[in-house]
Amino acid sequence: MKFYNRTSELAELQRIKKLSFNDRSRLTVVTGRRRIGKTSLIMKTVEKTPTVYLFVGRKNEAALCGDFITVILKALDTFVPSEIRTFRSLFQFLMELATHKSFNLIIDEFQEFYNINESVYSDMQNIWDQYKDKSHMNLIVSGSVYSLMQKIFQHSKEPLFGRADNIIKLSAFDLFTLKEIVHDYYPQYINDDLLALYAFTGGVPKYVELFCDNNVLNVNGMIEFVVRDNSPFTDEGKNLLIEEFGKNYATYFSILSAISGGVNTQSEIEAALGDKSIGGQIKRLIED
């Protein structure tokens, strides 16, 4: 599917990139739920400029740094010491490089450092504070676990609090954008088809893309695609909740299950869960 919408976000990211290259380094946070199009937007922004893209997978830190070194070698055509085994050392190397070379550094799934080495955040804070005013790096970090990204950058006790120059939260496509997409891919659509697309996807770009790429943009086709065996939608809700709520996801599942069964007050839900206090979980479900 071609790139749609995001005009204001694209313009803002390009403005920041220009400032980063011509003035001093900038740190931008791009956040939003899974499948919302964060990576696509970022990569569109940095087209035709030197870019290092690092995806933080759940690996040992040394193994991860080994992968990152290979990426940096290809992206910037520069020597990287092979003995680097910590992200602290790698990030310091990149910040030093940015004192005489302008480039984009994208760190995707940034919240995963919590599972690898939480001290990375304080290490980055120290190095960023030391180099940001004398370097020219356009640093963009993104993450799909919104609650963790919010904690990393907006909780006052976290080391990277106050370090982000810009925080951009992506939302789903609005109805006007969905109408443009349907018109491009299925010109003979009727209003029921447009309504069904919005109902099934909520405007989430990845879900819209699935329908477009599989050429199912009429009501019956969408229904069959969603409910068929091995549908990509089958486990999506469960996986989203597990990722967002971590090891405590079972409690949230129990709350949602109780609500779906008609139990809809906090006291009733707590009783259904064996008199377990759930005030904090309810608050998070509402606000996050």
UniProtKB/TrEMBL annotation:
> Pfam families from the entry?
ATPase_2
Q: InterPro entries given for it? A: ATPase_dom, P-loop_NTPase
Which source organism does the UniProt entry give? termite gut metagenome
ATPase domain spans which residues? 3-210
Coiled-coil region list? none
Q: Read off the Gene3D superfamilies from this record.
A: P-loop containing nucleotide triphosphate hydrolases
What's the name of the protein?
A: ATPase domain-containing protein
**GO terms for molecular function, please?**
ATP binding
Q: Mind telling me which SUPFAM superfamilies this protein's record contains? A: P-loop containing nucleoside triphosphate hydrolases
